[in-house]
Design brief:
The protein is mainly β. The protein contains four helices and 50 strands. Among the domains are: 75 residues, no CATH class; 122 residues, Distorted Sandwich (Coagulation Factor XIII, Chain A, domain 1); 32 residues, no CATH class; 58 residues, no CATH class. Strand 9 and strand 10 form a beta hairpin. The chain starts with a helix and ends with a strand. The C terminus is likely disordered.
């Protein structure tokens, strides 16, 4: 009877825990989701426009890196304008030449200059974005909005009219500029666009093409100038141009602008994306656990990759057949000496865009590690080669960078969990564990013990928590009976980030989301991407940040969006949450959490030290720190003072330094002295009725004698 009561009590506790366990799971986990594949943990924060002088801007922002050392960070300024469809169009973009490498938990603050095209007029949004050289998105933030009053005179290459065709195609099938149509080496792509001359005079312009590896953030691999075009004033004409083509199978971006006879760009830029058919592979990202190693340690390298760029549904040529691949990694130190032996790892088709880990023994001390990763076929053909470096950043043009603050280690952040829930959870876990020790000794309670084990493991099954994140929805096969049932989708790559990490009570927070690399590598006719989110994970009013559909019928929606809400007024740790959705029904969506803080604003009384401007010499500065460790600069206004002494024999001469100025001491109608410092009398004037010829300078402890005039 006693055992029956114990069993009954245990069952009651177990099933109560099953009922109450969702209290400790987030609202997001009420949806069926799976763990996200985190590709990078880089974020852009506190982006803002510091100043504007006509079309010249000064922009500041901070780049933060979280887990693992992240090389190859490239940033750009993107100028966007609202379009008639409710979205936005990129009207100008400047990719900066600087490449930044950040160790784990490091950040860097930057102030840069940007000059918008002088012909632009109207209202625009200014964004700071970041990718690596393979085109993997790493961060995005809106810096603000501006109004430009340009000439509005330029050659307008109208992007909405542009398309690609293949020379000799009898069907004259049209492909979107960003569709990524796949072609053979012997085929020719024709780019067609409407161009309008808005100048008041005839313009002769030269088409100028630049080709980049995979994306505009990749290596520039070619430049080409073509035959000049003449457009009369206000003339609009449809123009066909041959798109430059590379020799190596891969995806490419080709940018087109028009230059006048002086070599100045007088048009907007249009970008075309295409794929050259053939076996290829891409190393999307490489990360290390440290930025220096000692002999005998093990380097933990993580990388992500994708197979041939021509393998996507609806491809013209069917895609290259996947074959066994190998990645080979080698690491050197800052002087080029090998720190490791070459290390290999086999790659399967289903490994694409997963976090592939390689443990590499370090054979010698290795500071500022750099190295190379190569993806090869079984017969040794190299399909992709990616260098990585965690030492000094490369040299940049001084015109681009106005100010760089030193790279800093970030303070340890709390993980954003609710401590009340954690404490209650720990109590429950302790209770469950104690009961398990009592009852699991009895074979009759084996089933209940399995339930207890499930509860213990379920409690810790939290989705990924990170500050800003590039993540992938795991790939999968299409399934079903369709023509692409056995096609493997590599998974959609998403970017999610908050505009800040610390907010004042009630301040508006903005959550940005974007899908840059879709489930078919952004090539082909068909794609789907969707993201929903919450500013506060305790809320339940889910908001769609964006949804994008591309099919044979055209496109619908956008690949990016944002969500803005006021944060809570109570200071504390909070979390935003996003859900990224897959393109195939056989894969579950993923959930990612973005922690942030709400803190009370700092006030002047918190500044330490706390001198007033009138206490500091004119023009001198002193840096203070507030209770939030934010810097505050005090500029002095104190002016030099003049001291008058009527009875020098009893008062003496003060020699205190007064803001570096001369001190003038004067005895009425008797003595006038001018000194730079104590004990160095440069001039003196004594009246005839003065009898005392000595002046005491107490701060120097000496007497100085002067002669009467």
């Amino acid at each position: 009877m006693k055992h029956s009561k114990n069993k009954l009590a245990l069952k009651a506790i177990v099933f109560s825990l099953i009922f109450f366990l969702p209290v400790f799971q987030s609202q997001a986990e009420e949806k069926k989701t799976q763990e996200a594949i985190i590709l990078a943990d880089v974020g852009i924060y506190n982006a803002k426009i510091n100043s504007q002088d006509k079309n010249q801007l000064t922009i500041s922002f901070r780049l933060d890196n979280g887990k693992q050392a992240q090389p190859d960070i490239i940033y750009a300024v993107s100028l966007k304008q609202k379009n008639a469809q409710g979205g936005s169009t990129v009207v100008d973009e400047k990719v900066y030449s600087e490449i930044i490498n950040l160790a784990e938990n490091q950040s860097i603050e930057k102030v840069i200059s940007y000059t918008a095209p002088d012909y632009l007029a109207g209202n625009f949004e200014v964004w700071v974005i970041s990718e690596n050289s393979s085109g993997l998105p790493l961060g995005m933030a809106k810096a603000g909005e501006i109004k430009l009053s340009g000439t509005n005179q330029f050659i307008n290459i109208q992007p909405e009219t542009c398309f690609l065709t293949i020379k000799g195609d009898s069907a004259k099938k049209k492909y979107l500029p960003n569709q990524g149509v796949d072609i053979k080496k012997e085929e020719t792509l024709i780019a067609t666009c409407d161009m309008q001359n808005t100048f008041n005079a005839t313009q002769t312009v030269t088409p100028f093409f630049e080709t980049y590896f995979r994306s505009m953030f990749g290596e520039k691999v070619n430049e080409e100038t073509q035959i000049a075009i003449t457009l009369n004033s206000n003339e609009k004409r449809t123009v066909d141009l041959i798109l430059p083509k590379e020799e190596k199978p891969q995806a490419y971006d080709v940018a087109l602008v028009l230059k006048n006879n002086a070599g100045k760009v007088i048009s907007n830029r249009v970008v075309f994306h295409y794929v050259l058919y053939g076996a290829s592979a891409t190393i999307q990202n490489i990360r290390l656990d440290k930025n220096q190693y000692k002999k005998g340690e093990t380097a933990n390298l993580t990388f992500n990759w994708t197979a041939s760029a021509d393998s996507f549904p609806e491809s013209r040529l069917g895609g290259s057949q996947f074959s066994d691949l190998i990645v080979v990694v080698s690491i050197n130190d800052s002087r080029g000496n090998a720190c490791t032996r070459p290390t290999e790892k086999a790659l399967k088709e289903t490994d694409q865009m997963k976090n592939m880990a390689i443990n590499i023994p370090i054979t010698s001390d290795c500071s500022d590690p750099n190295g190379t990763a190569r993806i090869k076929t079984a017969d040794g053909k190299i399909l992709d080669e990616q260098g990585f470096q965690l030492g000094e950043k490369n040299a940049v043009s001084p015109q681009e960078i106005i100010q760089d603050k030193p790279i800093q280690d970030k303070p340890k952040e709390k993980n954003g969990l609710n401590w009340r829930s954690i404490i209650i959870g720990m109590v429950l876990i302790s209770t469950v564990f104690s009961l398990a020790l009592i009852f699991l000794k009895k074979r009759s309670n084996k089933f209940l013990g399995m339930i207890l084990f499930f509860l213990l493991t379920s409690f810790f099954a939290f989705p990924a928590r990170t500050e800003a994140v590039t993540f992938t929805v795991p790939g999968g096969y299409e399934g079903g009976d369709g023509p692409y049932a056995d096609h493997y989708h590599t998974g959609a790559t998403y970017l999610a980030t908050l505009d800040k990490k610390i907010y004042e009570p009630g301040e508006e927070a903005t959550l940005y989301g974007e899908a840059i690399s879709l489930s078919t590598c952004d090539n082909g006719y068909w794609d789907y991407a969707e993201m929903t989110g919450l500013i506060d994970n305790n809320d339940s009013d889910w908001v769609r940040i964006f949804r994008y559909i591309r099919s044979l019928d055209g496109t619908e929606g956008s690949t990016s969006g944002s969500l803005s809400r006021a944060v809570k007024t109570a200071p504390g740790d909070y979390e935003a949450v996003v859900i990224g959705y897959p393109a195939v029904s056989t894969v579950d969506p993923v959930t990612v959490f973005l922690p942030y803080k709400v803190v009370a604003p700092c006030v002047d009384s918190d500044w330490e030290p706390d001198p007033k401007p009138e206490d500091i010499c004119d023009g001198e500065t002193q840096t203070q720190l507030d209770s939030c460790d934010d810097p505050h600069l005090v500029v002095g206004t104190k002016q030099p003072e003049y001291e008058y002494i009527c009875d020098y024999s009893s008062t003496g001469l003060s020699c205190a330094n007064n803001c570096g100025k001369d001190i003038i001491s004067e005895k009425a109608s008797c003595l006038k002295l001018s000194t730079n410092r104590c004990g160095n009398i440069e001039s003196s004037t004594l009246c005839s009725n003065c009898s005392d010829k000595k002046i005491h300078c107490p701060s120097c402890g000496s007497w100085q004698e002067v002669s009467p005039k």
